[in-house]
TrEMBL record:
Pfam name, any one: HEAT_2
Protein name: HEAT repeat domain-containing protein
Length: 206
């Protein structure tokens, strides 16, 4: 039987990393704001152990689903630390956009992620943009595409903006998607083909 929120919050303190990870995944699915403080505290403890990257990823993603904008300061600090794991950069970008969206400040959050130059962080941010189906203003779209198109077409960072662009408008967006249809990556081709018809497709991040 699936854990309820109270049980999952309690399990965040389990000695087993696998059980802590399972609890975080459950809370991420429940998206219960009451779990936010416990997830923040659990994540602060978890990032001390570099061996538990999968658990750190799920806790960060869960914080994005259950937390509040007051958690943004910690998340921004976390993703800027040299020792922070790549998986946490991905989840951190996703969580930062989700929590910023609660205050309608997601465009600023996306630009902040871009300003770091961290491709993994940006990839996570664009994952959230795609999953939330956020329609970005033209300036932010331009900033995103400038960042993406400076990368090799073999780079996986093209995938999430190709999905998210289903809801974006303008000639620059159309040209981006058209170029992605000729991508050497089949996942990008599929996403761009769908987006050209306004279809976001069905994707589920880990």
């Amino acid at each position: 039987m699936a854990l309820d929120a109270v049980e999952a919050i309690s399990q965040l303190r389990d000695r087993s990393s696998a059980k802590r990870r399972s609890a975080a995944k459950r809370l991420r699915k429940l998206s219960d704001p009451s779990a936010g403080p416990a997830l923040l505290e659990a994540l602060k403890n978890e990032v001390r152990d570099s061996r538990t990257w999968e658990t750190q990823y799920q806790m960060t993603m869960a914080l994005g689903a259950c937390g509040s904008p007051s958690d943004l300061s910690y998340l921004r600090d976390l993703v800027l630390r040299r020792e922070t794991l790549h998986a946490v950069h991905t989840a951190g970008g996703d969580a930062i956009v989700r929590l910023s969206h609660m205050e309608h400040s997601h465009a600023e959050a996306i630009r902040w992620c871009l300003s770091t130059g961290n491709e993994t962080l940006v990839g996570g941010a664009l994952q959230a943009v795609a999953m939330l189906r956020l329609v970005l203003d033209q300036e932010t779209v331009t900033n995103v595409l400038d960042f993406i198109e400076a990368r090799s077409p073999y780079d996986g960072i093209y995938f999430w903006p190709a999905v998210a662009a289903a809801g974006w408008t303008g000639q620059r967006v159309h040209d981006f998607l058209t170029s992605c249809v000729s991508s050497p990556r089949s996942d990008v081709v599929e996403a761009a083909t769908n987006s050209l018809t306004g279809d976001y497709g069905t994707y589920r991040p880990l």
